[in-house]
Structure formats: structure tokens, C-alpha cells
Amino acid sequence: MPLALLALAVVAFGIGTTEFATMGLLPQIADGIGVSVPHAGNLVSAYALGVVVGAPVLTGICARVPHKRLLLLLSGLFVIGNIASALAPNFGLLFAARFLAGLPHGALFGVGAVVASRLVAPDRAARAVSKMFLGLTVANIIGVPAGTALGQQLGWRSAYAAVAVIGVVALAALAAFVPHQPRGQQAGIRHEVRAMANRQVVIGLATAVVGFGGFFAVYSYLVPMLTHLTGISDTSTTLVLALYGVGMTAGTLIAGPLTDRALRPTLYAGLALLAAGLVTFYFTVHSTVPALVTITFIGAMGALITTPVQMLLMAKAKNAPTMAAASNHSAFNLANAGGAWLGGLAISAGWGWASPNLVGAALAVAGLGLAFMGGFMDRGGRGSESSEVITSSAAEALPEAAPTTSAKG
Hints:
By secondary structure, the protein is mainly α. It has 17 helices and no strands. The longest helix is centred in the middle third of the chain and has 30 residues, at 125-154. The model is unreliable at 389-395 and 397-409 (pLDDT under 50).
């Protein structure tokens, strides 16, 4: 089990590195393919679009493919997308390659979360999922700075080539350590789509889009905030972003045990504390040490939300959790786009560089309201909802000859 979770974490590490390294290499990419930096910024959108489209589409198309085989296929697509990015000769092909690299992102996380939850006892499911997510947070501390530095020294293509190598390592680890997990009579695109219509799943996805949008409203403009208001030099912002990643890692570490014990209270607390941290940052952004402490706290609270939302969706999707789990990452990318857009509107309106913090706090409070709505509507409050994931996943894996059982959700 530890080696299987490590293999899933390596996949998450590669995904996190390729997703965010592009942002740090936009000037080099722009020079290399002969476009402006703002035009090169569309490559970030191309990857996000791939995530949004790929998560539900790929999990739907592959709804009957056994989980391990699907992980291997998706990892192979991830490797191909990054190799294509490293070799793309012009902007058009690079845009297509980044879209291709983003396609397996959400599906990999969704399938990986279901696989991780089935590797352990029911009362440790969230901890297993959070260990996979650790790969994503560690990427913000190590992978993204290393990929950026590599791209600056050896050319931006080398960063994508390095990510492809990470993908190959992850592919080998998945093949060696993840056990076979069959999918039986309750697997299929109709079951997955029907599960997505569950109102708790819809509210959970809306909570992720709105609540996590508060996180991205600030993260998207963190560097200009630091340089214009805090007085931190451009050369030091990479270290501050790594500090953000440290906070995210800490939040992920505590999210697993807390979610296993009390899923909804962990989600409520994470959103409330995220809103409080963003309001605090509005006032502390002008002083270096308080700003750095607040940034670390915001990173931790943002990460604390991720695991309970993922487990909630998997639990409420009943016996077809894979598409719901994957769509969570589509929701996060919509939150990225929406939060950045709303934060940018506040700055453009003349409210100042610190204004995205108040926008983000408002989004986090709105997300908390949606989460409370889901809790109020949920009348099945029987113990930890995390344990429902195991029941649902076990039902999904029933062989064709087995009698149909109904998973409680």
C-alpha cells in the first residue's frame, strides 16, 4: 500500500510541475516561439481547458476500463502531451500540445483518488487520498522552482522534457506497485452520468468552483502584490511561492485525518478560515513578516479544502464515484479561471492591488454557504461520509455474476 500511494503521489507531482511551471517560463517561451508574453499566457488557458474537458470525457469514455489499466493509459497520454510540448515548433502546435497534456489531469486525479481510497480501511480513506495530493503540493515547493530554473538555464523545452521523464517514472511505478482493481456490473457511462446528477454532487462541485475561486483570486496576483505592496524583490518571489507550497503541504497533511473523523466540519472550517486569512492578508500585505505568515496560512487552508471536497463527491456519487472525483479537478480549474477574472476586475476598477483578497474572502464565504446548504439538505448524517467511498467503490467492483447490492449514500 505505501508504494502504491507513492506511485500515485509521483503522478500528482508530475501533474503539478507541468501545470504551474509554464507560468514561470512565459518570457522564455514567448522568445522561443516568437510571440508576446500575453499571447504566450494563452498556453496556461490551453492546459486548463484540457483539464476541464478531459476529466468528464475521458472518465466517461473509459467507464468500464479497470482502474489500473486506465491509470496507465492516462499516464501514457500525459507523457505524450509533454513530449509534444517539448518538441512543438510553433505556437499553434504548442497550444494543442498543452491542451493534450491537460486532458488526463483530472481523470488521473479522479481515478487515483478512487484507487487510493480502496487501498486502505474505510476509516483511513481520506488519509490515503491526501497522501496522493501531497505530490501536488510538493510540486509547488520543489518541482515548479526546479522546472523553472531548468527552463531558464537550458531552455524552456527542457522543462517539459523533464516532466515527461517524471511521467515515465510514474508510469513504471504504477505498473509495478498498484494492484489490479476490477470494474464490474455497476461500471459504465450511464452509472457515472446518473451519479453526476445527484444534487449533493452538484452542490459539492459548485462549492469547489466558488470556494476555491477565493484561493485563486489571490494566488493569481500574489507576485504583483508582493512586489508592489510588500516590497519583495522579483528575485525573491520564487521563494515566497515555495513558502505558499509549504503551507499547502501542511494543510494536506492535516486534511486527511480531520476528514476521516469529520468530513463536513473540516470543509466548513477550511472555508471559514480561508476567508479569515484572506481578509487578514488585506491588512498584513504591507509588512513583510506578517505577510509571509499569512501567505503560509492561506496556502494551508486552501489545501485543507481539497480533500474533504474530493471525499464528499466520491461518497455522494454512490456506486459510480470516478467521474465525480475527476470532475472535481475540472471544478478547481474553473475556480482558477473565475477567481483570477474576478480578482482582475477588482484591480482594473481601481480598488488597488490588495483588493483581490476581499474578492477572495467573499468567494470563500459564498462557498461556505453552499457547503452549509449541502449539509442541511443531506439527511443521511450517519458517521463519517468518507467510509461511504469504500462501500461505493466496492459496489462498483462487483463482478458481473454477483447479485446487485445497493450502496448507502
